[in-house]
Amino acid sequence: MQSLRGMHDILPEDIKYWQYIYNVALTTFNIANYQEIRTPMLEDTLLFQRSIGLNTDIINKEMYSFIDNNNRSISLRPEGTASIARAIIQHKLCEKQISQKLWYFGPMFRYERPQYGRQRQFHQLGLEYYGHDNPSVDAEIIYLATNLLKKLSCDTYRLEINSIGNLSARLKYEQKLTEYLNHYYNDLDNDSKIKIKTNPIKILDSKNQNTQNILQNAPSLYEFLEIKSMKRFELIQENLKNLDINFIINHNLVRGLDYYNDTVFEIKTEELGTQDTICGGGRYDELTQQIGGKPIASVGWGIGIERLLLIMKNKIKLSNQDICIYIAPQNDTSLTYSLKIIPLLHKYQLKYEIDFNCSSLKKQIQKANRKNAIICIIIGDNEVNHNLITIKWLKEFRQTIYHWQEIDKLLQNISKQFSFSKQPNIEITQGS
Fold first, then answer.
1. What H or E segment, with its residue span, contains residue 381?
2. Most buried pick, 46, 111, 167, 301, via CB within 10 A?
3. Residues forming the annotated binding site for L-histidine?
4. Would you tell me the crossing angle of helices 45-52 and 81-90 to the nearest 10 degrees?
5. CB atoms within 10 A of CB 123
6. How far apart are CA 32 and CA 128, in angstroms?
């Protein structure tokens, strides 16, 4: 049997990178007082139809949806924001003018052709701020994204920003854009020919070079922005400069989901080829209203973990922490006796391995040395009969016998002496 196409196992040699990203994110967001939230992977299909938009590729082509045993249409979540907006409404998290600063880490699902850095089950790390529309909030969440990427040694990137205004401005712009593109209809790629009738603004994000050439002389969305949106965009630029964040204004940047308004941005890299976006986000002040609640000002972003890992693993090498203690019982009786040590090792957080094969002492010492253990605890008939343990200090080539009553204090001192880290060993190979 094989895993489904686009659904990959995360093996032990890779999982330490996932844990490293999670722990760096946890520390970074905790400093800014963001709290983690976890939402279900299954939601009512209508949630995504209302939020993402009926004319988007996600809804039309990429959703994993099915009818359950209760005749309900449910879907695997294709992104994280809609689920969090639903949770905000359901649990009344923003009642009485309370703001919510949230982050998430989890799997998402889209049925699309698997390719470099993009799978059908993929994972997102996201951050969202609900309850405030000040442009400074937009700048802060962008700062948190760039700061996190730098901590993960992903520091070769460019930040592109834009304002897409409100719905009224976009409708006026879409009318002018459609009129312009109709003159070049036969020259557009097939995907753009469909979008010109359903969602013309998404053509700005086309990857077809000929379509992009046509768009060079198209009307600019920026020309249709209302004064409030323009002033907001100017303030965001000023705030980013105050945070020493470099950016590029890209007036063709629109993002792929319908719920965005005003601020949109992407962080891109040249290290991933055509799949160059590692972080994207923006403001979605009307999202909660779209799914049946009150409008709540909100802004956020998402980072694709698989793409992030492709960059990070070239720059950071993680190795597992070596075990501290190797337990070497000589027979089944001494193995049973050895189990008494395990609670103490957990008490003092000492990483260990126990040889359940009860192989020869020579082989066990060789295994302990290969695993770079500091101590080998030897348990034989003598130790069992006299309530002792024998400790062999592998690095110092000495061996000592202790009475069982001394073991608790001994292990406590060992823990203090070596100050073992819970984190993997980290080596920055370049671009720290």
1. helix 381-386
2. 301
3. 79-81, 110, 124, 128, 255, 259-260
4. 110
5. 18
6. 12
Domain ranges of the chain: 12-166+226-314, 322-427
Q: What pLDDT digit, counting tens, does each position of 262-272 carry?
A: 999 999 998 87
d(CA 276, CA 268): 5
Cβ–Cβ < 8 Å for 274, 207: yes
Confidence of residue 432 (pLDDT cuts 50, 70, 90): very low
Helices (H), 53-188: 57, 81-90, 135-151, 167-182
Strand order in the sheet with 398-403: 352-354, 325-329, 375-379, 388-393, 398-403
SS3 (DSSP) at 371: coil
Measured CA angle at 18 (ends 16, 21), to 5 deg? 110
Kindly provide the b/e burial profile for residues 8-39, where b requires at least 16 CB atoms within 10 angstroms of the residue's own CB.
eeeeeeeebbeebbeeebeebbeeeebeebeb
Please answer whether residues 124 and 79 qualify as being in contact, where contact means their C-beta atoms are separated by less than 8 angstroms: yes
Question: What are the C-alpha distances in Å from 420 to residues 226, 319, 324?
Answer: 58, 14, 8
- Note whether 295 and 285 are within 8 A (CB): yes
Residue in the structure block whose two tokens are 């922490």: 321
- In sign, the C-alpha dihedral spanning 327, 333, 337, 342 is positive
One fold for 12-166+226-314 and 322-427: no
The pLDDT tens digits of the residues spanning 288-327 come to: 999 999 999 999 999 999 999 999 988 888 887 889 999 9
CB 227 within 8 A of CB 249: no
- Reading across the β-sheet that carries 73-76, which strands appear in turn? 42-44, 73-76, 65-67
In single-letter form, the type of residue at position 36 comes to E
State which fold the 12-166+226-314 domain adopts.
BirA Bifunctional Protein; domain 2 (3.30.930)
- Mean of pLDDT over the chain: 91
**If one looks up domain 322-427 in CATH, what number appears?**
3.40.50.800
pTM confidence score? 0.88
